[in-house]
Design brief:
The complex is a heterodimer.
Chain A: H1 7-23, H2 26-34, H3 41-49, H4 68-80, H5 85-99, H6 106-117, E1 122-124, E2 132-133, E3 140-145, E4 148-153, E5 158-162, E6 171-175, E7 183-185, H7 187-226, E8 228-229, E9 232-233, H8 238-266, H9 272-298, H10 309-319, H11 326-337, H12 351-354
Parallel strand pairs in A: 1-3
Antiparallel strand pairs in A: 2-6, 3-4, 4-7, 5-6, 8-9
Chain B: H1 7-23, H2 35-50, H3 69-81, H4 90-103, H5 106-117, E1 123-126, E2 142-146, E3 149-160, E4 167-173, E5 184-190, E6 196-201, E7 210-221, E8 225-226, H6 232-244, H7 251-267, H8 269-274, H9 277-304, H10 312-335, H11 354-361, H12 371-382
Parallel strand pairs in B: 1-4
Antiparallel strand pairs in B: 2-3, 3-7, 4-5, 5-8, 6-7
Helix pairs in contact in B: 1-3, 3-7, 4-5, 4-6, 7-9, 7-10, 9-10, 10-11, 10-12
The chains are: A alpha+beta, B alpha+beta.
C-alpha cells in the first residue's frame, strides 16, 4: 500500500511545470487565443519536444507507456497553465483510446507514433458532449455513432463554429455521415471503448479543473498580499484569509480523490467509473469555489478583462460540464451508493483493488 | 502508486476483526460522560490493553505492537467498522502520549506511558482558562517554584471529563511577570492532590462532559514537568499538532457514520420524497468521508517518503469537524419530527443515537482550536498571507 507518486513521476511533472511557466505565460496565451485558429503549432511542437505528447503512447509505438496515474499530475499542469483542449484530448484521451485497441488494429500504427512525435492533432468526442473541441483544426476526428466508433478525416465532416466564453475553446457542431470505411470499432468493443473514453475524458477535465483551481488560488494570494487598503495588505484581514483558506481546503481534499480515480482507470478497477465521477465532483467544487472566492478577493479588478484571473476562471466555468455535467456524475455515484448490497464504510475504500 | 495491502497487512486486518468479533461488549456501553459509563469504558480499555490493542503503534515494551501508520489505519477501520466503543482516554493516549515520547525523560516515560496505555491513569487536558480560549497565550494560571516543587494557583476550564479523570496536563505560567508564550511550563498534575477542586460543567447533553478545575496552592514536584522550564509553549504546540492531525480523528469513524447515514436514508424514503435535497446531502457526506479516508492514505504515504505535513493538519481538522456536523444535520433532517427524541423515548426508534451525535458534532468546529483559528493558520502558514 503506497498511495503516492514515484520520484520519476514527480520529477516529470516538475519539469513540465517549469517549462510551461515560461513558454505558456498568460500574455502569450492571450495572443494565441485571439487568432482565428486559437492554436500555436510552434507552442505545440515545443511541448511535444518535452515528451508530453508521448506520455501514454505505448513504448512499442514510440511513446513512454505511462498511464492515467501520471496524467493525474500532468492534467493539473495543463489546467494550471490553461493549455487548450486539443493537447489533453489528443495525447491523453485519444492516445488512451487507441492504446486500448487490439494490438493488430491498423489505426494504432497509423496514429500512435504520430501522436507520440506531436505531429497529429486529433479531436475526440462522445455522445455526452453536444459539441466537439478543436474539431475545426483537427486532422482526424474520433466520433461515436451508436455503439460504433469512427475515425473520420477532417475533410469528411462539416464543422460549425460555436464560440465559448472561454477564449481558449474552439467548439464545433460536427455534421457527418457514418460509413463502413471509417469504422474503428463496433458492437461490444465499441461500447467498451466509449465507456472508457467517457471516463478518461471526464478524468482529464477533473485534473485540469484542479490545476485551474490552484492557479486561481495562487493569483489571488499574490493579489491580496500586494493590494493595500486601510493601510495594510487586504490579505492580512481575516475575512479575506478565510475565503482563500477554504479554497486551499477544497483543493487539498480533491487531490487524493483524483489520484484514486486515476489508479482505478489505469488498472481497470470495477468501481473506476464511480471513482472518476467522485473525482469530477470534488474538482468541480474546488474550481468553482476558487473562481468565486478569487473574483471576490480581486474586487472590481477581478471583473475586468485585463486581469489574468478571468482567463482561468472562464475556463473553469466552461469545463465544469464537459464530459458529463455534475448531474451526470452525481447520478453515477448515487447509483453505486444507494444500490442494494453496496459495500460501504471503513475498510472498503480499496476493496475492489484488493479482491480483483 | 500501489493500492494493494500486503499479505501481512491483510493478516493483521483479519486478526483485528476476529478479536473484535470475539470480544466486543454485547450491549452498548453507557455514555462516557457519566461516572458509570466512564468506568465501563475504562474496563473496555483495560481489555484492549490486555491483548495489546489499546495503542497498536506504541512499541511492545509499552504494551503496543509497533504498528506502522498503514496498520494503524487498518486497525481503525476494523475498530470503528465494528461499531466498537469510543476511546475514552484519547486525551492522554493520543495527545500527551506522543508528547511524552518526544519530550519526556526516560523516567517519565516509564512512569506514565504504560499506565496510560492500560487506562490505569485517565487524563484530562488543562489548556483553556476563562480568559484564554482561542488566545491560549493569555494563560494566567501560575506555577511558582518552591524548592523541588511548583505551587499552582489559578483556574482551567473546558477540561473534558475532568471530574472522572485521574490526572491533568496543561500549561502554567512559571516565570513571574512573563507574558504571552514566554515563561510557560508544561506540567502533569494529579487531580487528587490537595488544593485541587473540580466543578463539573453540564454540557448540551445534560451530562458532566467537562469541568472547571481550580488550583489553590497545589504542590507539584518538578519531576512532573515535561520539557525545560519556560519551554511549555513549544511542547504544547507539538501536542496541538497531534490533536488536529490524523491521530485524534481517524477517517474510519466518519466512514462508519456515513454508512449509517446511507442506511438511514434508505430507511426513510418518505423524508427523501418530501425534501429532494436530502439525497444530494447524503451523497456529499459519503463522498466527504471517502475523500477524508483517501487523504489519510495519501498523507501516510507522503510521511513515509519523508515529507512533512505541517499546516495541512489544520485542513484535516476543518474537514472532519464540518463533515461530522453535516452528516448529523442530514440525519436530523431525515428523522424529521422524531429527531428531537431522546434515546430513552419509547417512540425514538432509529432516531436513538443520532441526537447525541448531533449535539457532540456542534462542538467539533470549536474544540482542538476553533475552525476560525485553523483558517488563519492555513492562510498564514500554507498560503503565506501576512499576519
Amino acid at each position: 500500500m503506497d498511495f503516492t507518486f514515484t520520484d520519476d513521476q514527480l520529477a516529470f511533472r516538475e519539469a513540465i511545470s517549469r517549462f510551461l511557466m515560461t513558454e505558456a505565460a498568460p500574455e502569450m496565451l492571450r495572443e494565441i487565443w485571439e487568432t482565428d485558429a486559437g492554436r500555436s503549432p510552434d507552442l505545440r511542437n515545443r511541448i511535444a519536444a518535452q515528451g508530453l505528447t508521448a506520455l501514454s503512447v505505448p513504448e512499442a509505438e514510440g511513446g513512454l507507456g505511462m498511464d492515467d496515474v501520471a496524467w493525474a499530475l500532468m492534467t493539473q499542469e495543463l489546467g494550471y497553465y490553461a493549455i487548450p483542449d486539443s493537447l489533453a484530448d489528443t495525447a491523453y484521451v485519444a492516445a488512451g483510446l487507441l492504446a486500448g485497441l487490439d494490438p493488430a488494429h491498423p489505426a494504432r500504427a497509423e496514429l500512435l507514433p504520430r501522436i507520440a512525435e506531436g505531429s497529429l492533432r486529433l479531436a475526440i468526442s462522445h455522445a455526452i458532449n453536444p459539441l466537439v473541441s478543436d474539431a475545426q483544426l483537427a486532422e482526424v476526428l474520433i466520433l461515436p455513432a451508436g455503439d460504433d466508433l469512427h475515425l473520420v478525416p477532417r475533410a469528411a465532416v462539416d464543422v460549425q463554429a460555436n464560440p465559448s466564453i472561454d477564449a481558449s475553446r474552439r467548439l464545433g457542431l460536427v455534421s457527418w455521415t457514418p460509413g463502413p470505411q471509417t469504422l474503428l470499432a463496433s458492437g461490444e468493443e465499441g461500447r467498451r471503448l466509449q465507456a472508457q473514453l467517457l471516463d478518461r475524458g471526464a478524468l482529464s477535465v477533473a485534473g485540469q479543473l484542479l490545476g485551474l483551481a490552484q492557479r486561481m488560488l495562487d493569483l489571488s494570494v499574490d493579489y491580496v498580499a500586494q493590494r493595500k487598503q486601510f493601510g495594510k495588505p487586504i490579505g492580512s484581514f481575516q475575512a479575506v484569509k478565510h475565503h482563500l483558506a477554504d479554497v486551499a481546503r477544497q483543493i487539498e481534499q480533491a487531490k487524493p480523490v483524483l489520484y484514486r480515480a486515476a489508479h482505478g482507470l489505469a488498472h481497470g478497477e470495477q468501481g473506476a467509473s464511480v471513482w472518476v465521477s467522485q473525482a469530477r465532483l470534488a474538482c468541480c467544487e474546488a474550481s468553482w469555489l476558487a473562481a468565486r472566492k478569487g473574483i471576490q478577493v480581486h474586487g472590481a479588478m477581478g471583473y475586468t478583462w485585463e486581469v489574468d484571473l478571468q482567463m482561468f476562471m472562464k475556463r473553469a466555468w466552461a469545463l465544469d460540464a464537459s464530459w458529463g455535467d455534475r448531474g451526470f456524475h452525481k447520478s453515477r455515484v448515487g447509483a453505486y451508493l444507494f444500490a442494494d448490497g453496496a459495500r460501504l464504510g471503513p475498510g472498503h475504500t480499496f476493496e475492489d483493488v484488493n479482491h480483483a | 502508486m500501489q493500492l494493494t495491502y500486503t499479505p501481512k497487512q491483510q493478516a493483521f486486518r483479519a486478526e483485528v476483526r476476529t478479536w473484535l468479533a470475539d470480544n466486543l461488549p454485547r450491549q452498548p456501553l453507557a455514555s462516557y460522560d457519566t461516572r458509570e459509563g466512564f468506568e465501563e469504558h475504562r474496563a473496555w480499555e483495560a481489555k484492549l490493553f490486555e491483548s495489546r490493542w489499546s495503542m497498536v503503534m506504541w512499541p511492545a515494551e509499552l504494551g503496543g505492537r509497533g504498528c506502522d501508520l498503514i496498520e494503524w489505519l487498518i486497525f481503525e477501520e476494523e475498530y470503528y467498522g465494528a461499531g466498537a466503543p469510543m476511546r475514552v482516554n484519547q486525551n492522554g493516549q493520543l495527545l500527551l502520549g506522543p508528547t511524552l515520547m518526544e519530550f519526556g525523560t526516560p523516567e517519565q516515560k516509564r512512569r506514565f506511558l504504560p499506565r496510560m496505555a492500560a487506562s490505569a491513569d485517565m487524563w484530562a487536558q488543562g489548556w483553556s482558562e476563562p480568559n484564554a480560549g482561542s488566545d491560549m497565550a493569555a494563560i494566567t494560571s501560575k506555577a511558582l517554584l518552591d524548592g523541588d516543587h511548583y505551587v499552582l494557583n489559578g483556574q482551567k476550564t473546558w477540561s473534558t471529563r475532568a471530574i472522572f479523570a485521574d490526572w491533568l496536563f496543561g500549561l502554567f505560567r512559571s516565570e513571574p511577570g512573563s507574558s504571552r508564550h514566554h515563561g510557560l511550563s508544561f506540567l502533569m498534575v494529579p487531580l487528587d492532590a490537595p488544593g485541587v477542586s473540580i466543578r463539573p460543567i453540564k454540557a448540551l447533553n445534560g451530562k458532566d462532559a467537562f469541568a472547571e478545575v481550580f488550583f489553590d496552592d497545589v504542590r507539584v514536584p518538578l519531576a512532573n514537568r515535561i520539557g525545560a522550564e519556560g519551554q511549555g509553549w513549544h511542547v504544547a504546540m507539538a501536542t496541538a499538532g497531534f490533536e488536529r492531525g490524523l491521530l485524534l480523528r481517524s477517517p474510519a469513524r466518519f466512514q462508519h457514520t456515513a454508512r449509517k447515514l446511507v442506511e438511514l436514508f434508505k430507511a426513510h424514503p418518505e423524508s427523501a420524497g418530501r425534501d429532494p435535497g436530502l439525497g444530494d446531502a447524503v451523497l456529499d457526506c459519503w463522498m466527504g468521508a471517502e475523500a477524508y479516508a483517501l487523504s489519510a492514505y495519501h498523507t501516510v504515504g507522503r510521511l513515509g517518503r519523508g515529507e512533512q505535513i505541517g499546516a495541512e493538519s489544520s485542513i484535516n481538522k476543518i474537514i472532519w469537524s464540518e463533515l461530522d456536523l453535516k452528516m448529523h444535520e442530514t440525519a436530523m433532517r431525515l428523522l424529521g419530527a422524531r429527531g428531537e427524541l431522546l434515546a430513552r423515548a419509547p417512540a425514538a426508534g432509529d432516531a436513538a443515537g443520532w441526537l447525541e451525535g448531533f449535539l457532540f458534532a456542534q462542538s467539533g468546529p470549536i474544540y482542538a482550536g476553533t475552525n476560525e483559528i485553523q483558517r488563519n493558520i492555513i492562510a498564514e502558514r500554507m498560503l503565506g498571507l501576512p499576519k
